[in-house]
């Protein structure tokens, strides 16, 4: 059923402010995990003993005897208030309810969420346990959980009987229902404002598992985890913020605002469900609790954990993302002074002589070895300054924008100078360690700390794969752990530098592993796991070896959702609410992709299909598509560099030379042209090869002082292509291409006999331009034309007839143009004809005009 046809209610009758209808109805809605109603029932009944399905719900539902139990499987992550209707026989007893996200932990006690850790040490241990409904005698009963005991995230509900008697006390489960507690202001839980659909069904499911996770993380503002942790059981009645809905880190836990998590969660929210109201509420609570020194808490209330430089900056980056997606100028103006204060606070920690951030707020995402000149916080500071400069510009403060831009550039130089390990080919964790962290190196690619098209970027991308396991990348800064949070940055980093196949492989390996795990939720993304495949993420780093504590619906792991839209589909906004945007698809092994999202300006939608060679892009009518990038500095985002495709068509420099040893050489160059006509000069540009060897044409021209140019024509196109193949220096390309030679008349070089137009050239000079590895230096070879050969067969009325020569020219990529003459037109610039002789290229006429001392208009 299409989401547009569903009518529901909001959570506990709060004010409904969410969308009513899906923005993009279609068959892809079958992948939405969100239920079609706020009140739902389980899908199957499972045996606690075997873990196997007994029947579809309602199925067998009678519990007989003490500790008898049945497991009710909702088939996906859910959360909220459970109601059980049941009838009993016999004597008094209790109905127990236990909840778990993973199948591993189904039993008579819930998995862990309260922060005390069920498998902790000593008096820190506190099992979430179960909740109970007491029945005094045989009868009919109904039990509904109270708000403090709402379970934020679970898939499996175990119902069990506790009784002290051995006679026939039993419970018959008449009805199990759940009122969904997430996405509280939406009356239609399936009203997604974005979509993604490709020919790869696994990628589609991963995209929607991230989107659904984010839904489970948007919760009522009075349902946070209680702090301090309760001494037994769990309590989710803590106040998180003002308003009615807010985005938190996880469905089950911690149920608190964590700005670092939002660095991944918010971009994925924007392209999928589109709930930016919850984002605004989360950010506002961070501003409302800013400390007197300008720092932000690491987490929002009631936790209000302090002491994190990185999460301080994530609040600032989150502000940029929110404004980019909404253009909420009222929010920005309200909090701008606080933002400026926060910027001065964090930049005040940049110390000389290194000019790097000196981290003193040590708390972070769980990584080890924080503090000092750590590379990850410096990458985040660079991004904070860059996005801050944009915010300042949007506030109309160009001076402040320039100041922060300058600081960003200085910091970037210092990061590269002091933290890049040239021997290893990646960034070190700090100035004294040999550790090369996943987080900093991933962010260096994504944030553009290194040029997107550089060999350094490719080296970092390659080095990141050194830590890959069959189920995802090990975080070297948290050994034995796989963090889908940090891997979300790595994923986007590979895409930012054009390594599409690598990125798609990472999605399938990491997120595909959990989605297909038989013990997972089959619907959401997990907080983390170990390299051995256990769910015991962070067991030695803060989680007290309690594997049941790990969250299985954690928005910080939703990176593929935004990555698939922004990079694989290739649709991304670059200006506020899409005032500017880009379409730069990356194909990989996919054949078709479509998707879109909404802003206040309207719908943005794109699709591509390789098999049908179709591409479509739709945007609000008033928005113009603009693509902008800085070569070597920012990435174009396209599967191939567009530069050569912009300068088209280009004449082909089919250059023939002879070596000192008498070996003839022939090669085409797509950077070729004439420079002037009196006397005539031509040039061709030749890159060094991948091993930094200069081209034979260049060496021969310099050593012999001579070369020839041959017109590349339609009839000779296959020979031109054959001569482009790389051969050993002692190979004669004329022979390889099957071409007959003709000796030049003035210079000692061969010419292509079948070419209708040929130049004989004397070498003049070589201009050597610095290039980026692996291509190396570019040789621009210039020669003076000393003789010209034109076949009479290509002349018509004294003119070279393009319809007869039919030259070919290079375009972009592997494309060529065939010039037939049909599209040739003539156009003469208005004005004094004497001033236009240079455009005609007539040497004699130029001399005559020059003798008359004609003053030429300098604007021509």
Features:
Jelly Rolls, 860 residues, alpha+beta, Glycosyltransferase, ten-stranded antiparallel sheet, Pnp Oxidase, Chain A
Could you explain how this protein is built, in words?
- It is a single chain.
- With 860 residues, the protein is an alpha+beta fold.
- It folds into 3 domains: 39-180, Galactose-binding domain-like (Jelly Rolls), CATH 2.60.120; 194-623, Glycosyltransferase, CATH 1.50.10.10; 644-825, Electron Transport, Fmn-binding Protein, Chain A (Pnp Oxidase, Chain A, Roll).
- The chain is 26% helix and 24% strand.
- The protein has 19 helices and 40 strands.
- Strands 1, 2, 3, 4, 5, 6, 7, 8, 9 and 10 form a 10-stranded antiparallel β-sheet that branches. Strands 29-28-32-35-36-31-30 form a 7-stranded antiparallel β-sheet, with helices on one face. Strands 11-24-25-26 form a 4-stranded antiparallel β-sheet.
- The two termini are 67 Å apart.
- The model is unreliable at 1-7, 120-126 and 853-860 (pLDDT under 50).
- This is Flavin reductase like domain-containing protein.
- Residues 645-801 form the Flavin reductase like domain.
- It comes from Hortaea werneckii EXF-2000.
- Pfam families: Bac_rhamnosid6H, Flavin_Reduct.
Structural class designation: alpha+beta
CATH structural architecture of the largest domain:
Alpha/alpha barrel
Q: Count of helical segments?
A: 19
Number of domains: 3
Mean pLDDT: 92
CA-based shape: elongated
């Amino acid at each position: 059923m299409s989401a547009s046809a569903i009518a529901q209610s909001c959570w506990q009758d709060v004010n409904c402010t969410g969308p009513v209808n899906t923005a993009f109805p279609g068959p892809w809605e079958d992948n939405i995990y969100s239920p079609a109603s706020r009140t739902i029932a389980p899908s199957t009944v499972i045996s606690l003993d075997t873990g196997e399905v007994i029947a579809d719900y309602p199925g067998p539902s009678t519990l007989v005897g003490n500790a008898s139990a049945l497991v009710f499987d909702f088939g996906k992550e859910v959360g909220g208030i459970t109601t059980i209707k049941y009838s009993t026989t016999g004597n008094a007893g209790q109905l127990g309810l236990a909840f778990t996200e993973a199948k591993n932990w189904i039993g008579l006690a819930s998995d862990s969420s309260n922060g005390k850790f069920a498998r902790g040490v000593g008096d820190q241990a506190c099992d979430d346990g179960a909740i109970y409904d007491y029945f005094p005698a045989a009868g009919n009963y109904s039990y509904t959980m109270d708000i403090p005991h709402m379970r934020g995230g679970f898939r499996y509900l175990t119902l069990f009987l506790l009784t002290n008697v051995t006679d026939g006390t039993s419970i018959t489960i008449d009805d199990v229902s759940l009122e969904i507690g997430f996405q509280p202001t939406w009356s239609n839980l399936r009203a997604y404002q974005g979509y993604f659909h490709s020919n790869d069904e696994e990628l589609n499911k991963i995209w929607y598992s991230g989107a659904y996770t984010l839904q489970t993380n948007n919760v009522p503002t009075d349902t946070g985890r209680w702090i301090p942790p309760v001494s037994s059981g769990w309590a989710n009645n803590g106040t998180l913020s003002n308003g009615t809905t807010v985005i938190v880190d996880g469905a089950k836990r911690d149920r608190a605002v964590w700005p670092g998590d939002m660095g991944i969660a918010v971009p994925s929210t924007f392209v999928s469900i589109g709930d930016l109201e919850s984002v605004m509420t989360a950010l506002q609570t961070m501003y409302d609790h800013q400390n007197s020194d300008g720092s932000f808490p690491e987490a929002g209330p009631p936790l209000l954990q302090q002491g994190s430089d990185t999460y301080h900056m994530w609040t600032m980056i989150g502000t940029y993302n929110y404004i980019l997606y909404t253009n909420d100028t009222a929010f920005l103006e309200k909090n701008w002074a606080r933002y400026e204060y926060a910027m001065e606070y964090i930049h005040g920690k940049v110390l000389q002589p290194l000019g790097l951030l000196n981290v003193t707020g040590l708390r972070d995402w769980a990584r080890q070895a924080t503090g000092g000149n750590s590379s990850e916080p410096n990458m985040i500071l660079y991004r904070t300054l860059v996005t801050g400069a944009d915010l300042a510009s949007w506030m109309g403060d160009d001076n402040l924008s320039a100041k922060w831009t300058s600081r960003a550039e200085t910091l970037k130089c210092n990061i590269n100078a002091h933290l890049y390990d040239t021997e290893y080919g990646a960034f070190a964790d700090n100035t004294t360690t040999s550790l090369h962290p996943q987080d900093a190196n991933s962010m260096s690619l994504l944030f553009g700390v290194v040029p997107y098209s550089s060999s350094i970027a490719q080296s970092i991308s390659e080095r990141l794969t050194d830590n890959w396991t069959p189920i995802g990348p090990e975080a070297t800064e948290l050994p034995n752990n796989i963090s889908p949070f940090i891997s979300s940055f790595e994923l986007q980093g590979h895409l930012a530098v054009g390594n599409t196949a690598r990125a798609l492989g990472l999605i399938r390996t990491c997120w595909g592993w959990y989605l297909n795990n038989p013990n997972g939720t089959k619907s959401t993304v997990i907080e983390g796991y170990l390299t051995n495949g256990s769910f015991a993420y962070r067991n030695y780093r803060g989680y007290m070896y309690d594997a049941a504590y790990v969250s299985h619906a954690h928005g910080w792991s939703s990176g593929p959702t935004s990555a698939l839209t922004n990079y694989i589909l290739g649709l991304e906004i670059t200006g506020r609410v899409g005032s500017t945007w880009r379409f730069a698809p990356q194909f990989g092994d996919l054949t078709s992709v479509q998707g879109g999202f909404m802003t206040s300006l309207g719908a943005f939608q794109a699709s591509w299909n390789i098999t049908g060679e179709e591409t479509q892009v739709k945007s609000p009518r008033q928005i113009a598509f603009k693509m902008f990038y800085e070569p070597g500095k920012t990435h174009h985002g396209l599967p191939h560099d567009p530069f050569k495709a912009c300068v088209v068509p280009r004449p082909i420099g089919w250059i023939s030379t002879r070596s000192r040893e008498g070996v003839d050489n022939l090669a085409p160059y797509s950077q070729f042209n004439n420079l002037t006509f009196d006397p005539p000069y031509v040039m061709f540009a030749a890159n060094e090869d991948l091993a930094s060897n200069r081209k034979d044409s260049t060496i021969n021209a310099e050593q012999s002082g001579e070369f020839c140019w041959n017109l590349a024509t339609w009839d000779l196109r296959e020979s031109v292509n054959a001569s482009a193949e790389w051969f050993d220096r002692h190979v004669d390309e004329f022979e390889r291409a099957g071409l007959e030679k003709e000796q030049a008349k003035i210079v000692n070089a061969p010419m292509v006999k079948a070419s209708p137009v040929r130049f004989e050239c004397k070498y003049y000079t070589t201009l050597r331009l610095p290039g980026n590895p692996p291509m190396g230096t570019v040789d621009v070879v210039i020669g003076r034309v000393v003789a010209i050969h034109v076949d009479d067969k290509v002349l018509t009325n004294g003119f070279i007839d393009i319809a007869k020569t039919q030259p070919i020219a290079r375009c972009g990529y592997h494309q060529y143009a065939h010039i037939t003459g049909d599209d040739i037109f003539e156009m003469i610039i208005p004005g004094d004809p004497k001033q236009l002789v240079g455009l005609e290229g007539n040497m004699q006429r130029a001399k005559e005009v020059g003798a008359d001392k004609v003053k030429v208009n300098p604007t021509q």
